[in-house]
């Protein structure tokens, strides 16, 4: 117990040094004893060493709280008129940290005592998983850092689901895990503690199976293959269109027609035309119109000159009947075989 005495006044306290958690209520004692019987001239004052104004005081029969006004967190909590000038501070803050003086004055007798108040702050950790959720056989780093809190701060990691302690966390709150497996998945908690309390945070670790990684890669490969197949299909379609129209144009140019050299349409029947120097014309009678090669007296079309068929009829109609006798004419363009 500390005490201060001047003449007939003696002030003591049993809480010379206090530590309190931020947000809690603290009780600071100040007990005085005086030989004077007249209490009308009593003055009590609590002030902070680094403050210009008292935090709470009694003088001239009234209580004042100059530092915070009528809603002050500082209040007398004892019988201050009869020797107990103790006070309380509600909802303590970091700004309340410091040294206080309790001073009592009575008829010129003055005595005081000091009380040191330390505000302690619980650590508030923040948990994180670096690099995102890992794949099988990758390394993992989980961090638990408390930027606020009264030193010294210690860190403890626990696996909540399934529950088991972890021994390899370091003083910085970092948890390293190498070559993780699916069994390492779970909910992890970090507790940051100091001498007044602790707070915690959690990290959910979900190890990604190889199958999902392979599936992701196969999806990409499937997309690439699909694009290549689409390009190949478009190329084949383009080639088919080109081939179709090329063949159609060639067929149009080579399609047999009934137009003669003089531009007039041939009659339905005419006498047979004899062989000339540059033109070969073949005519068939009804008896000659059959699925057999032309008779030997009708020379076949030449193979060394272009041939223009001018009048072509099928040998058998669509019903399988032999059509009426018609003429099959061709014209050899260029020199005949006899001219060569």
Automatic annotation (TrEMBL):
Regions of compositional bias (Basic and acidic residues) in chain numbering: 274-283, 316-340
Q: Which PROSITE patterns match?
A: IG_LIKE (PS50835)
* Membrane disposition: Single-pass type I membrane protein
Q: Which InterPro entries match?
A: EJ_Adhesion_Regulator, Ig-like_dom, Ig-like_dom_sf, Ig-like_fold, Ig_sub, Ig_sub2, Ig_V-set
Question: Where does the Ig-like domain lie?
Answer: 9-118, 123-206
Q: Name one Pfam family in it.
A: Ig_3
**Gene3D superfamilies per UniProt:** Immunoglobulins
Query: Where does the record place the region Disordered?
Result: 253-340
- CDD domains reported for this sequence: Ig
UniProt GO BP: homotypic cell-cell adhesion
Q: Name one GO cellular component term.
A: intercalated disc
Q: Per the record's keyword annotation, is Transport included, yes or no?
A: no
Query: Does the entry feature the keyword Thylakoid, yes or no?
Result: no
Major place of localization? membrane
Where is it localised?
Basolateral cell membrane; Cell junction, Adherens junction; Cell junction, Tight junction
Ranges annotated as biased composition (Pro residues) = 295-304
Keyword vocabulary terms for this entry? Cell adhesion, Cell junction, Cell membrane, Disulfide bond, Glycoprotein, Immunoglobulin domain, Membrane, Receptor, Repeat, Signal, Tight junction, Transmembrane, Transmembrane helix
- MF term (GO), any: cell adhesion molecule binding
Regions that span the bilayer: 220-245
In its UniProt entry, what is this protein called?
Ig-like domain-containing protein
Lineage, opening ranks: Eukaryota, Metazoa, Chordata, Craniata, Vertebrata
